[in-house]
Specification:
14 helices, about 400 residues, about 20% strand, Pdz3 Domain, Leucine-rich repeat, LRR (right-handed beta-alpha superhelix), alpha/beta, seven-stranded mixed beta sheet
Amino acid sequence: MNRLFFADLSHRLLLGSLLLAAVSPSVSLAQVETANLPAAGNRVTEDGVSETQLAQWVADLGDDQFHRRKAATRKLIDVGSAAVPALVNVMERGDLETIDRAMHCLTEIALAGPPEKEDGAWGELKRMSEANTASRAALAKASVEEVRTVRESQAGEALTRAGVRIGIDDFMVRAVSTPAVIVQIDENWSGEIDSLGWLRWVKNIEFARVKGPAIRPDVIARLVEMPDLKTVAIVDGDVTVATLRPLQAMTRVDALEFRYVHLDNELADEIAKIPVRISLSLMGTGIPAEKVDEMRINLPGLHIDLRQGGFLGVSCLTGMNTCRVNEVTIGKPAQLAGIESGDEIVGIDDVKIDSFEDLQAAINQKVPGDQVEVQYLRNGKRKSVKLSLGKYDIE
């Protein structure tokens, strides 16, 4: 009886061996399972990986053996974007555990890609997060949020390394300077345009300033990808029609400032196409006053502040019937000429000054380098001093 049992068992083992050999003399059990997968073809990726190999690794994501699943996961992530189609395919038909592992691969591939990349793994994750299939959509939404969180953390470090400044600074809107968290791209920027791809991941910052050699169309195009950007200042440089085009494509601009940037009538017409909602500041641009009057007619409701660019360097309380200095900017003309906090400015040349608004109106007619005589009261005594106006460049 025992001999018969062992003979039958030997027969079954031999039959099993023959069946495996019939498939392929050197194929593993996991490879046999891929016979049920759709035909993948023999095309080869840039990394030298065939579609058949990709299909094998995707199949191994559902293997019972941990080491095989782990190895397949690593290989698919290393292959990168070339593995995306195969991973998306298995997510349409795989079991929940395989889908979860494929989603992990897509997330890692998305994080390894360039920050400005919108297609590939990142694009597929966003597409699936909006799909109707509840289980896949929930997993994809979690992956999308994971990518966003990591990218936001990486963005600040990457931009700082590239010389982009992110931090608190004074920002002028409608002639009032207030502290704000800003992004500033200036002469300290490395010049590597790809580094600005990280700007699209900078959240909760509404203010940005571009200065000097960084005033370029490709820089502005990356800048406007900041998701919460609402206020832009362009300072000390050259502007062309091409520079303004990305700003015209924005859906919302609360405030826009051009400071010490030459503007002509053609550029003024292009600026009028930018969707500015609240204020437009033109300081030291040389734009003709009559052109600004035309812009005010064509853009009703928009506050347009025109100043020639001269800067005294004092601040006083607004809405008062006096122009008493409460702050003097260190290193600027007023401080260098001896004007102090507590002095009351009563005249600029032949113009009587009764308020801070009067002082602003008088100075706004002057360009940097203009000489003016400032009359002021100190402890009831009238004094005067002649000085040359400077530029507003305190940042």
